Amino acid sequence: MAKGARPSNIAEFIDPELIPDGCQIAAVVGDTLDPSAGLTTRGHHTYTIWGEIAAQLGPAAFKAIQNNETDRTAPGDDVWKQVIEDKPTIIVIDELAAYMRTLSSSGSADIRRMAEAMPAFLKRLYEAAAGNPNLVVVITFASTRNAFGKETTDLEQAMKEAEGSIRADEVQSVTERGGSILKPAEDDEIGEILKRRLFKEIDQDAARSAGDAYRDLYQELKDRNETLSGGADRPVTYGEQVARTYPFHPELIRVLDKRLGAIPNFQRARGSLRLLAETVANIYSGSGENPEIINLADIDLSNTEIRNSLTTGIDRSEFDGVAVADFAGPDSHAAQVDSTRFAGRRPYAVRAARTVFIHSLEISGQTGAGIGDWTLGTLATGDDPTVIGEALSELSRTAWYLAEEPGERWRFVTEEQPAKIIASEAKNVPNTAVREALEARIAKIFADDGAVKVVLFPSGSGDLPEKAALRLAVIHQDDLTVTSTDASPPPSKLVGYLEKAGASESIRTNRNSLCFLVADSDATESMKSRIKNTLALERIVEDSAKMASFAEPVSKKLQNLADQAQMETRIAITRCYKHLYYPFSDRANKNLRHVELSPSSQGEQSGSHTAQVIAALETADKVRTTPLSTDQLKSKAWPKGQDSVTTKEVAGWFWSDHSAPILLDPTLLREAIRKGVANDQWVVYEAQTERAFTKDGPAPPVEISDDILLYEPAAAEDLGLSGRAPRVEDVTAILENTPAIDGDTLRAKLEEATNREPSKGQVTEILARGAEGGEDAKFAIVFKTPAPGDKAAIPSDIRKGPLSSMTVLSMEEARRLSLDLPGQTKIRPATGSGAAGVAFQTVLDEVNDSPAESVQTLEVKAKADPGEGTRDVKLLGMAIAQLPKHDISASISVEMDFIGLKPGAEIHLSGPARDYQKIEDELIALGTKASDFQGTFSLVFDFGEGVEADAAEFEAVRKTIVGLDPGEVTVTARLV
Hints:
Blueprint: E1 24-29, E2 39-41, E3 44-46, H1 49-57, H2 59-71, H3 77-84, E4 89-94, H4 96-104, H5 109-131, E5 135-139, H6 149-153, H7 155-161, H8 168-178, H9 187-198, H10 204-223, H11 235-245, H12 250-259, H13 268-285, H14 304-310, H15 318-326, H16 333-340, H17 348-360, H18 371-378, H19 385-396, E6 402-405, E7 409-412, H20 418-426, H21 431-445, E8 453-456, E9 471-474, E10 481-482, H22 492-499, E11 500-501, E12 506-507, E13 514-520, H23 521-542, H24 544-549, H25 552-576, E14 579-583, E15 592-596, H26 599-602, H27 610-619, H28 630-637, E16 644-646, H29 647-656, H30 666-678, E17 683-686, E18 691-693, E19 708-711, H31 713-718, H32 728-737, E20 740-742, H33 743-754, H34 760-770, E21 779-782, H35 795-800, E22 807-810, H36 811-816, E23 830-835, H37 836-849, E24 855-864, H38 871-882, E25 887-898, E26 901-912, H39 913-928, E27 932-947, H40 952-964, E28 968-975
């Protein structure tokens, strides 16, 4: 404008009346001055800043200052008056700090002295401007974040670097004397400046809409307590700022000014304009994305020119390879994340990486982007901020140069990160090692699970013989793979396995016994890569020297990755082996149905993954987990037109019919068979035991066998297999071999006799009937272990039970025990005690007075009292040898104490007298050594049907016992 240019919109900036018609101008840029070689301007060769100013102002000005140029001495007030005269003059000095650095760091003492003259030069120039309204002096200072910031804010420190010392306050006092220190643009005005330089016009309606949209976005995030920074935590005012900076986002302007502007070689104004111009051009060309507003994430760093502006253009060339590898381009790691994790959506990984990368270029203590930075610089309306963090986390798994720091902070570095280290080592892992490790891991993950047996990598039908059991065939990934789009109809190889069995490839009968698991074509390489990386990680962490060479955060992350490698490998394998085929009645698809294992089942970290396959089959209702319907079993599994079927044939239907569910739990079939018996749909018959089970009996113990048959009820009855109700005669027949039997055992024997388990009520009823009739009763019952003289139960008590407490006795056994039988006269036993002769005589007297006709048994019991020792027991025992023809049983129950030994000994024995004789001598010998011996010993003489009291058999016993004189005895005669 000073030279006469008049933009059409000049009134927006200044009153046109204030601009003079003619003006002399000098514009000096400090970093272009050369105090050693000099510059030639308008025919004048100058070495000083004041000489260059005068040369630009014209011949008269240079003539006035020529001596000062020659002497390299700062001009005084009079000289400046001659230079300016009365002409409107503007002197602009830019990059003064850089010029001062050049002077003070020169190897020439004369040039260094020029640096010392700079305060005087500035003092005189400002004084001239203060006293002359026609002179305006403009000096620009670099930001304190500039490489020459120290020269700008502390001249004293800058001069010390050049072996001189000039006080900063000396210069400061000069500049404040006659002028003003102005800031060319406030922070919120920078966006307006950039817009005007790049766009002819801005749609203000669109700007207001953008402001409203982002205001609402940040208000929603604030309400959710999301982390916001850069002023976005005040949504209303920030929305207004968005409208002012549109089409640029305020965060983009802030980072360009505050962060990139702090990089020495990034020029805040020209650098920002160039970067944004390239970005806008890229968007307009259609090469990049079409954003709703231009933010950090919209700077397309896959564009070489744009990327150069932020790498080689600002001495950050080492970051160019970082960008290309991790996010700048279609083959970058971030692009791979977006094509898989965020397919069909906004490229979150690439966008977030761009934001973090730009924040990473500044070399400072806060290099990189915190959560507020990467959220604000990346988020667009409609985005969820958690997705941005997820994208960075996912990218960090494969990125070579993305580093995570505490506090959810990310930054790109030039040092290799774990992913790059692993990738380099993985190149050294042989493919054969990868194959072996992968096959071993697959075998471990897909192991047998209960009733399901796994067949790994079958090479033909010979590996899949005929069996009535479920097998999961895991097909080798190098043998067969499918994708989600071509999985149906099923591959012919699987159809062949389903239809042919064994090496002979005979027709497979059990077509419901095979399921197949097939790898996904698109996930196979990822699975192999995961295995290779795992092996590489193992090599790295096992190499202590190599681990020590890494920075601590890197080595720690490598160790953590190694710890997680097995889990990651499992996930990769299960994500690949996700195509499950199972038999299903579907001719169009060759009787094989395809299902993909759900994502939730692919993330299990431990145990056999076969369980997840079973769960998928259960979800598809292919594996039956609920009780079976007996109607379905009858209609489907029972051969048409047959009266009977084996349980093995019934079970076989579930393995041969495509439409049948798979029964991994055989109890479901057993319960259904039992339920069919209870519903009278069939009778279960055990061929080996010739035993039938009907609805009236107990539940059958069902086995799956050729020997267990199911019969139609009518057919079972016609064949006489159904069993019958028990009768009194069944009980008497049992008692012929077992004179005394408990109620539960009797019930079991009745079941054997009738082919049907009788109810407890049926048993007690026939027992009550058989116990009636007095002398005509068939058997007797007592409600405990029977003892001589007990009272037998009457029919009414027998019917009430309980059966488990009853003992059933034959009438012969009841009479032998002298039971008090209903309807019969009770004959009490005859008993006598004392010396043998006295006891026997007492018994004879009672026998003669009794209505009994004979003596059935005679018991003689001797007692060993304390201090008597074994005498009486020994004497009574001698009767056994003296009465060899008698049926004698013996019973002894004694306690013995021994000096110095505890707790003593107890002996309780009973049985045939001849067996007692075998141990008698040893027992008496032991007793004689005891310090105390006490107890009882008895002999029972059984006379069968009975003898009269004067019979020879009875008299022989009496004479023998009396003759032995075993001391005091008790004699008991059971009478009949």
